[in-house]
Amino acid sequence: MPPFTPCFGFSLPLLITCFLTCPWIELVTASAAPLYNHRSCEAAVQEWSNKEKLALNKELKLVQPGSRKILELLFFLHIPRTGGRTYHQCFLKNLYSPNDRCPRSYDKLRLDLRQPSCKLLSSHDDMSILSKIPSRASVVTNLRNPVNRVLSTYEFSVEVAARFLRLKSINSSRSPLPLAKSPSQLVSTLTIWPWKYLVPFMQHDIFTRRDARLEGKVNWPQSTNTTYDAPTITMPLTEFIHHPVAHELVHNGATFQVAGLTNNSCNEDAVMVRKCSSLYPKLGHQVLDVAKRRLDYMLFVGLTEKHQESATIFFSLVADQAQVQSKAMQEILGQNASVPGEGSTITSIRSV
Question: Where does the secretion signal sit in this chain (predicted)?
């Protein structure tokens, strides 16, 4: 197998520089316009959609309730702000011994792709990462109410960016944070998608507002004294939601992650398909359709709003294949959980 090549993605310095120092410009310039006209985009998205659906039908079989089995690798697709860290730390990793857990891979893939010996991988990478892993993988993920996920994304971006206010200027905000206790813990929020884009963006905004406030150069509108509208301190929620950065990274982020089309994708078609679906929203229905088909092929899909119930149902499906390593987890889950039937959490998710 050829050596692993990095996934396709935008250059962080270039992306952030454009967002922070330049007026926002249209992604499609005059010279590039013919490439992204409606006919070209429709053909490109249709070709990608057909290829993805063919691959799903060819390589996988739709798993029916009662016959769900963990394959060689259990891949937890961690969609940001869905409670994935809690789900992984408190539940999934306790199904496996330490030797069976893959190295933490939130900043980059940390396993030998030619001979992966681990059985549990958790990552913010989108579904395209599976094309780089030779093991047959079963996929688990969590979904969350989209409005709550967007609010949580905004809150977390502001929270992490604000931690740097102790520094004198934005130029010093890249200084390293205190080192973790062991090499396996050396994962910084600033290296994880999508925070490696969102946090620097929000950092610049917070520093700009702080400096303007201290120098008395700008008369900011009065705050409504709500968490989401404090313009003298940080970008209000409404401004954030309509900003191109949020459109690129947050809007429909879960759909793009499940479809394998984030701006951190390993799929060479990702840039074209993302741009086309942005220019022509109706083409996005094909992206959504692929994402929904991927959910149907997953081993299990849980709900953030029903964490414990999701964990209990999932455990009941794979109890004969996984050994719970934590006694506390055994007590939480119990041994009486039954496999869900019609109208259960997992059935309702399939119909979304």
Answer: 1-30
